[in-house]
Write a structure and sequence with these properties.
about 290 residues, eight-stranded parallel β-barrel, 3-methyl-2-oxobutanoate hydroxymethyltransferase, binds 5,10-methenyl-6,7,8-trihydrofolic acid, binds 3-methyl-2-oxobutanoic acid, 2 domains, binds magnesium ion, alpha/beta, 3-methyl-2-oxobutanoate hydroxymethyltransferase activity, TIM Barrel
Length: about 290
């Protein structure tokens, strides 16, 4: 009954989903329509302020499970939890209005069965308001993609280098350098597409394999370390900004924010030690209001 719960008795403008709220974001059909057309611009986002910067410039914001490594200092993405994805997903939704927001299902939260995948995906969409989830799509996961799609949940696939399989692969290894591998990635991509995925990330593959995958599937491909043959590109934002301590070979650095931060902090430290910060402009005065 409306009016029973505290959260509904005093509606907050920002959290009430109006017709406009959903319509002003990039929609799933609009995303799908970009196949072979204008390139899709995608980046990861984990926080509200970063989402605010990126939202006007991007088609898709991905709350990637890379946040475990980039923000939480984990060695791989295997330790990321559903709760972490929800907390960061909520922050990104608060900081964005226009981009389609998709959230990675973390390791262990979807692989067992279509039912497990549905429970996790529906919970994540319900608690964040995001539009889509992303799954790392080994061939066996295609059944779950179809199960979710058939029940109203848009799914983005992720083929090629699958970071959640790092323990099996013995590292983050590029794909498509042998014929057997090429066939496996192509099979994963075809199964993901046939299951109804709205798009798929293609990670860490050779340019000819990226070309072949992009031609073989009906949904847009979003490349990361997969050449310009894909229908769009994604990078981890902290990598392209030069904020993360290491970066894969496929990253281009568009800024050196580590350098900028170190310079800024060195300046602050020097001023504090010299007693020159705070100065007059940064002090409160008796009787004055500002
Ligand atoms: N900061 C960050 N950026 C990412 O792109 C990223 C994450 N974290 N975490 C999750 C996954 C892991 N990813 C990675 C991590 C390392 C390599 C890497 O070192 N690759 C080797 C390729 C080795 C080979 O040739 O097979 C490289 O030299 O780039 C690639 C992708 C991509 N994702
Ligand atoms: C790099 C993208 C595709 C990703 O899966 C992540 O950030 O977790
Ligand atoms: Mg991921």
């Amino acid at each position: 009954m409306i009016g029973q719960g505290n959260s509904l008795t005093r509606p907050q403008r920002s959290s009430m989903v109006s017709k406009q709220t959903i319509l002003k974001r990039v929609t799933v059909p609009a995303l799908r329509a970009r196949k072979g057309g204008e390139k899709l611009v995608c980046l990861t986002a984990y926080t509200a302020p970063m989402a605010q910067f990126l939202d006007p410039l991007c088609d898709v914001l991905l709350v990637g499970d890379s946040l475990g490594m980039v923000v939480h200092g984990l060695p791989t993405t295997v330790g990321v939890t559903i709760e972490m994805m929800i907390l960061h997903g909520q922050a990104v939704m608060r900081g964005s209005t226009k981009a389609l927001v998709a959230i990675d299902l973390p390791f262990g939260s979807y692989e067992r069965s279509p039912e497990q995948a549905f429970d996790t995906a529906s919970r994540i969409l319900m608690e964040t308001g995001a539009q889509a989830v992303k799954v790392e799509a080994a061939e066996g996961v295609a059944e779950s993609i179809a199960f979710l799609t058939g029940r109203g949940i848009p799914v983005i696939g992720h083929v090629g280098l699958r970071p959640q399989a790092v323990n099996l692969d013995g590292g983050f290894k590029a794909r498509g350098r042998s014929e057997a591998e090429r066939e496996r990635v192509l099979a994963e991509a075809r199964a993901t597409d046939a299951a109804g995925a709205i798009a798929m990330v293609v990670e860490g593959v050779t340019p000819d394999l990226a070309t072949e995958v992009t031609a073989a599937v009906g949904c847009p491909t979003i490349g990361i370390g997969a050449s310009s043959a894909c229908d769009g590109q994604i990078l981890v934002t902290e990598d392209m900004l030069g904020l993360f301590e290491w970066a894969p070979k496929f990253v281009r650095h568009y800024a050196d924010l580590r350098g900028a931060i170190c310079d800024a902090v060195a300046g602050y430290a020097a001023d504090v030690r010299a007693g020159s910060f705070p100065g007059g402009a940064e002090e409160y005065r008796l009787g004055a209001r500002s």
